[in-house]
Amino acid sequence: MNSSLKTILLTVLTLSLFAIALVELSGVSRTALLNKLGMEENHAQQMSKEDQAKRDSEVKKMPKTTLEVAETKFDFGHVIAGTKVRHTWKVKNIGTNPLVISNVQTSCGCTAPFYPKEPILPGTIGEVTLEFNSAGKEGQVLKNALIMGNADNAPFSIGFVAQVDKK
């Protein structure tokens, strides 16, 4: 490999590491970054009813822990009808056992939940995202979701409000 190619590859690697470090230091979450880029999380929440029931049953048997969400309600403000908006809640495990979210139940099919399938270790933070599709909605909309899991304070309610305006 010639020296100019090595220099180019080393420069690309260095810039990539620098970009990753900036993202980490800025506090921008992975979900927020994917939303900004218009990309989807690669853990779709579509699970068969049988698989969901099995997961719920397994999680109920797990040792209890405690979850904490600093901000439980979010206001999207004015939203143009037909647009999709997302908000991510930080879910902290303040207990002593791993927190497993078995499901996030929404109050309407217009709201899609995204949550981690892997355990949230004690003292760490996971993210629950709700995506609201405002198509067919108009006026003030209030939606809630229940975080289900092995927390002693589950189901835990989060939600949002939006003022949906005509196009």
Account of the 3D structure:
The structure is a single chain. By secondary structure, the protein is an alpha+beta fold. It folds into 2 domains: 3-33; 45-165, Immunoglobulins (Immunoglobulin-like, Sandwich). It has 3 helices and 8 strands; from the N terminus they run H-H-H-E-E-E-E-E-E-E-E. The strands form 2 sheets. The protein has a 4-stranded antiparallel sheet. A 4-stranded mixed sheet has the order 2-8-7-4. A hairpin with a 6-residue loop joins strand 7 and strand 8 (156-165). The chain is extended, with a radius of gyration of 20 Å. The termini are far apart. Residues 27-44 have low confidence and may be disordered.
Strand residues, percent? 35-45%
Name of the top-level CATH class of the largest domain: Mainly Beta
Q: How does the helix and strand content classify structurally?
A: alpha+beta
How many domains, in number, for the residues?
Answer: 2
Average pLDDT figure: 84
The span between the termini is: 58 Å
Which term fits the overall shape? extended
Report the CATH architecture of the largest domain.
Answer: Sandwich
Main sheet properties: 4 strands, antiparallel
CATH superfamily of the largest domain: Immunoglobulins
| Total count of helical runs of at least 4 residues | 3
Order of strands across the widest beta sheet?
1-3-6-5
User: How large, in whole angstroms, is the Cα Rg?
Assistant: 20 Å
Give helix % range. 25-40%
